[in-house]
Amino acid sequence: LTDLTSFEKLEFWAEQAKQRTSEDTLKIIVGNKTDLLDQRKVTKKIANEFVKSKGKMFKYIETSAKTGENIQELVNKISNYYLETEQTEIKTLNLENTKKSCC
Predict the structure, then answer these.
(1) Exposed, middle or buried, 35 (CB in 10 Å: 0-12/13-18/19+)?
(2) The domain 4-102 is classified under which CATH number: 3.10.20.310, 3.90.180.10, 3.20.20.70, 3.40.50.300?
(3) Which keywords label this protein (predicted)?
(4) What is the pTM of this model?
(5) Which of 24, 33, 36, 40 has the most CB atoms around it within 10 Å of its CB?
(6) How would you write the pLDDT of the chain (103 residues) with one tens digit per residue?
(7) 62 within 8 A of 31, measured Cβ to Cβ
(8) What is the DSSP pairing of strand 27-31 with strand 58-62?
């Protein structure tokens, strides 16, 4: 949030993430250093617009590693996504196994 050059490099990294992961892989962009508001260079609006332009699997959260702000929320967001994905895959596998054993 305090380094405009770092934010500008996100275009490259977002494209790398798109190319190297499946479409349904969650990608979270983390704006760090919310504790340095007086040095902020990237507004929340600009960051949200950028993330929105990248697609539905890109999410955004602002944190402070120094104060711990939103760190737990970030971990929860990641955990919840993968728990939901895991449950969906298990259900799919169970349905396939049921069909195979019935035939």
Answers:
(1) middle
(2) 3.40.50.300
(3) GTP-binding, Nucleotide-binding
(4) 0.75
(5) 33
(6) 999 999 999 999 999 999 999 888 999 999 999 999 999 999 999 999 999 999 999 999 999 999 999 999 999 999 999 888 876 655 454 555 555 556 5
(7) yes
(8) parallel
